[in-house]
Amino acid sequence: KHILLVNGPNLNMLGKREPAVYGHHTLADIEQNLAKQAASLGLSLESVQSNSEAELIERIHAAFQQVDFIIINPAAFTHQSVALRDAILAVDIPFIEVHISNVHKREAFRHHSYFSDVAQGVICGLGIAGYSYALQSAHEFLSKAE
Ligand code: DQA
């Protein structure tokens, strides 16, 4: 089974970006940890990060019938992008939404997500461990689906 990890805008700045909110780990740390975990679960994992909405949409389109599960942190697009929501609905791939910070503790504009009502589940506020919990959960979901 093939998993796609999608990270949205500004997440390439993890480690440097607002460390009090997002911690000191880098995106490379997250991607490497998840690739190792995936391998140990017998899954293949591909990672993409982009600051461009169009690029993320196109990457999700390319996942059509190629990817079994998506783990996505849409970052600021969470609160903005109907187009990215529509892309993930179009390919009809189950997904988990992850946020490093607890968006509900933060500004009101972060409380609404264009993804949560169509996600398998949502993980937020647990730091980068959230990605790992999402992968574990994706593995369980895919094992049951078999
Ligand atoms: C984020 C939360 C979003 O509100 C923010 O725009 C991000 C990161 C998180 O992982 O906590 O860029 O998705």
UniProtKB/TrEMBL annotation:
<dbReference type="GO" id="GO:0009073">
    <property type="term" value="P:aromatic amino acid family biosynthetic process"/>
</dbReference>
<comment type="pathway">
    <text>Metabolic intermediate biosynthesis; chorismate biosynthesis; chorismate from D-erythrose 4-phosphate and phosphoenolpyruvate: step 3/7.</text>
</comment>
<keyword id="KW-0456">Lyase</keyword>
<dbReference type="GO" id="GO:0003855">
    <property type="term" value="F:3-dehydroquinate dehydratase activity"/>
</dbReference>
<keyword id="KW-0028">Amino-acid biosynthesis</keyword>
<dbReference type="InterPro" id="IPR036441">
    <property type="entry name" value="DHquinase_II_sf"/>
</dbReference>
<dbReference type="Pfam" id="PF01220">
    <property type="entry name" value="DHquinase_II"/>
</dbReference>
<comment type="subunit">
    <text>Homododecamer.</text>
</comment>
<dbReference type="InterPro" id="IPR018509">
    <property type="entry name" value="DHquinase_II_CS"/>
</dbReference>
<protein>
    <recommendedName>
        <fullName>3-dehydroquinate dehydratase</fullName>
        <ecNumber>4.2.1.10</ecNumber>
    </recommendedName>
</protein>
<dbReference type="GO" id="GO:0008652">
    <property type="term" value="P:amino acid biosynthetic process"/>
</dbReference>
<feature type="site" description="Transition state stabilizer">
    <location>
        <position position="17"/>
    </location>
</feature>
<dbReference type="GO" id="GO:0009423">
    <property type="term" value="P:chorismate biosynthetic process"/>
</dbReference>
<feature type="binding site">
    <location>
        <position position="86"/>
    </location>
    <ligand>
        <name>substrate</name>
    </ligand>
</feature>
<feature type="active site" description="Proton acceptor">
    <location>
        <position position="22"/>
    </location>
</feature>
<comment type="function">
    <text>Catalyzes a trans-dehydration via an enolate intermediate.</text>
</comment>
<dbReference type="GO" id="GO:0019631">
    <property type="term" value="P:quinate catabolic process"/>
</dbReference>
<dbReference type="InterPro" id="IPR001874">
    <property type="entry name" value="DHquinase_II"/>
</dbReference>
<feature type="active site" description="Proton donor">
    <location>
        <position position="99"/>
    </location>
</feature>
<feature type="binding site">
    <location>
        <begin position="100"/>
        <end position="101"/>
    </location>
    <ligand>
        <name>substrate</name>
    </ligand>
</feature>
<keyword id="KW-0057">Aromatic amino acid biosynthesis</keyword>
<feature type="binding site">
    <location>
        <position position="73"/>
    </location>
    <ligand>
        <name>substrate</name>
    </ligand>
</feature>
<feature type="binding site">
    <location>
        <position position="79"/>
    </location>
    <ligand>
        <name>substrate</name>
    </ligand>
</feature>
<feature type="binding site">
    <location>
        <position position="110"/>
    </location>
    <ligand>
        <name>substrate</name>
    </ligand>
</feature>
<comment type="similarity">
    <text>Belongs to the type-II 3-dehydroquinase family.</text>
</comment>
